[in-house]
Amino acid sequence: MDHLLGTTVLSGHRLDSLVAVDDAVATFRALAPDGSIGTLRISLLIEVSDAQLESLPTELTRLARHAVGIQALLAPRAAGRVIVDNVPRLAMVHAGDPCPNLESRLQEGKPASIDSVLGLLEPIARALQALHDQGMVHGAVQPSALRFDVLGSDLSAFGWSDLAMGLQGPPGACHALSVSRRPPELSLPHPTAPTPETDTYALAWIVLELLLGKRVGSQDQTVLPEAKGHGLAPSIEAVLSEALHPQAQQRRLDPQTLLRKLSEARFEANRPAPAPADDPIPAPFTQPSKPEPAEVAPTPELSLFGQRRVTSTQEQTRVTAPTPAPLFRFDAPAPKRADAWFVYALVGLGALLLAGGVGSVFYYMSNASPKVAESTTSPSSSPPVLTVPTAAPTPPPPSSPPVLTAPTAAPTPPLVLPDAPQPLAQDSQEDASVPKLPAGPPSSEALAVYPEDASALVPVLADTVVFGTRDAPVTVVLFVDMRCPHSGSAQKAMSQLLAEYPSDVRLSIRHLPVDGAASETAAQIAVGSWALSGRKVFWDVFGTLTRHGDEREQDELLQWAEQAGADKQSLADTLRKGTYRSVVERDVNLAGQLMVRATPTFFINGIRLNGMPPQVKLQKVVQAERFAMMRSTPGGSSRYASRVLFNITAATDD
Known about the structure:
The protein is of the alpha+beta class. The chain folds into two domains: 2-268, Transferase(Phosphotransferase), domain 1 (Orthogonal Bundle), CATH 1.10.510; 445-653, Glutaredoxin. The protein is built from 18 helices and 15 strands. The strands form four sheets. A six-stranded antiparallel beta sheet has the order 1-2-3-4-6-5. It has a five-stranded mixed beta sheet with strand order 11-13-12-14-15. The chain is flat, with a radius of gyration of 36 Å.
């Protein structure tokens, strides 16, 4: 690989020095055109064809979006191919100097304490957890990807496994790592794709190596590290054994939970053994004679880490020999009288407040009940009569004597929505309600939105796709990518919620194409299907496009939309003219303001849920918001904006 030194690759990056090379990856120190230092990795097992090369910039843009805002995660700079021995190989550049890294630290052979390990890996665990919350996996956590310096620790190689899988499928993730660093699920004859449990396994492996101060396993063969047999504390061994389980389903720890349990195990390991019970205190002013030390047989006792050892006769004599009685016995000081009076004063004040509250309740109840007044012919001597206020009270005729009865309110005419818009020509009675989806009023989305909803921190607009009524206590704003399979799962979950809470849940769909030009085209097709054919066709197009997210060509996307019920020719005309591009751009700008980087993302009355949560969690949040909104202002005015402000403010305070 030395023949590549000094050459310029990948948008002007010059290879300065070769840092490391193994059976899968060659790592170089590279200089960018702006003079900054980067880490360039070249795969020795993954080839890149001409057709695959065109898709790398799009994939790199998608990966860079997921890395935005995550501290301790070095974002990818460039990706492409480098010719190695006349073969085009996958290459990728990340920010930051490749050295010093964990590999060089392990070569020093110095074990680290559990405290220093937790301090070094805490930023790494937070970065991995942020990726997992977005539905992403790092897949290449290894010592050479962890950088340590005076400013802290960083994690490199993000996206390396994703690009490898995009080129070769699940085997690509296996070829992206050296044989000695592959987890069990990537060492099978038919490897599976990396999962969040794969990152947890790799992090636990690094913890074990830092505690031992050396690499675990060989450099050229598959290794299954074990926590036992290295002399670690039993509590720490138990945590690492759970994270290093060969089966991914048995690793029930995420990266942050792993470090938290290790921290708890650290305190358990450092807890001293229980001291022997004190001898009874003899009577005051007595001095027992000191007995001669007796010969006691050695007996085993537990050491600090649970190992049994045998104490010597001299040690047992020192422990069991009675000590001279003290001349005086000092007990714990009694509480000060001033503290006691303070407690009594608080108790008395509480009793007074309780008595006052009970009295106020009885007084209110006695005055709130209507009093019956005796009728009399003298108007001047008649006591005041309590009457029920009505909307339009009618005075009694002057000729008839006053009758002391509560007048009834005038009959209320039936509620009629003024100037209600008529149904759209395209939105027929069948379109007004999506199958298995309770839609809003059959007229248009305008009746599903209050004007005040547009000013909320997470706005709901009348010219967006909205299902449900505007008086629904729970509003879900869902950001989706029409080519994202997880967005398709979100559609199914919302179908269940809308069917379960037909009058309590309102859904607003916003678009966030995160997978390049194909996703943006799919978003415009979805918006056009709604505008031209109504909500039912939009919902069918939504489900169809997410089920065929691997399609990238415009004609294929239009073909699937036509099968879902949309007008292919009309949609093609809108795409050519860019009719609905501004609608998609508006949603993308809103996603940027809300810092939404991945799909799906839920906002339930302002409560944010990233990724595709379990259905049970969605129902729990919806039910909690329903109960919270029961005490708010009744229908007839917008309650959504104030509730969103409350939830977002509460989340910020937390």
